[in-house]
Amino acid sequence: MKADKILDAKGLACPMPIVKTKKAMNEIESGQVLEIHTTDKGAKNDLTAWAKSGGHELLNHEEEQDVFKFWIKKA
After folding, report:
1. Most buried in the list 8, 11, 15, 70, measured by CB within 10 Å?
2. What is the structure's pLDDT at 14?
3. Domain range spanning residue 18?
């Protein structure tokens, strides 16, 4: 999946992946896609809820060798 910006949040514990995601979202335009890489197991619930509350669209997520990847389209 193509992303307009990639955020490396690996090794960060909650709430830092969300804090970094919010900052990165402010740097892209509406309709663009942010790809987030994190190792925080709680990120699946956190990022899903955060995207929904902000009106953003969680396009996809997958796990690859203990790294969780998310693609969120900015509202």
Report:
1. 70
2. 87
3. 5-73
Helices 16-26, 43-53: inter-axial angle, 10-degree rounding: 40
Q: Give the CATH number for residue 11.
A: 3.30.110.40
List 14, 16, 28, 59, catalytic entry: 14
What size, in residues, is the chain?
75
Q: What is the domain count for the chain?
A: 1
Residue 14 a catalytic site member? yes
pLDDT of the chain, 75 residues: tens digit per residue? 899 999 999 999 989 999 999 999 999 999 999 999 999 999 999 999 999 999 999 999 999 999 999 999 999
